[in-house]
Known about the structure:
alpha/beta, TIM Barrel, 2 domains, eight-stranded parallel beta sheet, six-stranded antiparallel beta sheet, 15 helices, disordered N terminus, binds alpha-D-galactopyranose, Alpha-galactosidase, glycosidase, EC 3.2.1.22, signal
Amino acid sequence: MARKLLALVSAVPVVVALNNGLALTPQMGWNTWNHFGCGINQDTIVNSAKALISNGLDKLGYEYVLVDDCWQADARDPDTGAPVEDKSKFPDGIKAVADQVHSLGLKFGIYSSAGTYTCGGKFGSLDYEEIDAKTYASWGVDYLKYDNCNNEGRAGTPQISYERYNNMSQALNATGRPILYSMCNWGEDGPWNFAVNIANSWRISGDIYDNFDRYDDRCPCTSMLDCKLAGFHCAMSRIIDFSAPLGQKAGKGHWNDLDMLEVGNGGMTYDEYVTHFSMWALAKSPLILGNDVTDMSDETKQIITNDAIIAVNKDTNGSPAIRVWKKPVSQGGDIQLWSITLVNYQWVFAVLNTSPVNQTVDISLLDVFIDQGSSFGSGTFTLSDLWQKDSSGNWGASVGNAQGTFTVSVNSHATRVFKAVPASSSSRREFETVDDPHAYYPGGDSRELLL
Length: 451
Ligand code: GLA
């Protein structure tokens, strides 16, 4: 088996990512847009940065504080052409805000568009890449989100889009400052094919909408593979669908961005936000909070601080989860099984129920371990439930051993996420990766399991 696996691994093409050393795991942070839109000022940013710290979110990895659209003045500096901030919102200047964010131990990011204007109608960076990148670097910017509005028709083939986005990539690199480059061209022209070497992440779809599954004609595509109008108002579970075939294109330093999180913004239930957070983590999307972190409910905090789920996103095996199957259910919607390989003999699988009714589902470990082969998948595994706390209050309560097929109950619109580790060391030997004694949980063999 080990030899067979090695052969499989070496058949996968090696991709060289953008060489800025950033986003070796998907970036995490907070962004102004989903909650505040254009209604931002320097206090919004600094207060949110402080809230990241007072809530312990920085310790969990949320490190980037990101200013989205509408920070700009009405026009560039008429003499130099340099970008200028709106002084009514940022009286002390962007640099002073970046300095404050840095003094809190966090990183600072900004937004522009690869167009003449941004989506909010402010000046964009098209043909101003060099001076903009230099100015951002001089302000201490660590991250650029680079949008796609008003691109003057410079899209339509991967090469045209590549050139437009590569201009900013080169300009950022030329500053000598490590600046994470987050492309936001909504999946147009297939950035997962052309942006791997120029960006740290790329949006895969039109803008997220804070709703589980409402269809909206403004997000008209059913798949992003040949989508001609990415649009916006894309319900959360539709973005999960969009992401399913694209995981194969992501890896260390270059990620599929499923868009910023809506957890805490009020449009979804607890179970729906659990699905949102879980699936973004398993898809290895950047985890960028989009709520008001200065004013959060306990439920919101519970979700965004689930360190067992965050650990899946941060696992150093850079391959996103695969969707093993999706089965329609009679009441509408479907049940989906997703599976992801982590380092050190650990796997995680998720059972997602997009249907309007609660379901009980038979899950076969042969499906969970579809890529590892049937001799491995027929072994016994110790499972923990990553959305259940153990007696010490830690996420990831142990739920026993499983072999073969077992039954999982999943509420409507909810996702159950389990970690699986081989219950015996002999099955671990089939995977000659880094040995980590903490990954081994001995246990008995129970064949009947209801989760
Ligand atoms: C686009 C982007 C959003 C946001 C807005 C700002 O719609 O996709 O994420 O940045 O622009 O105007």
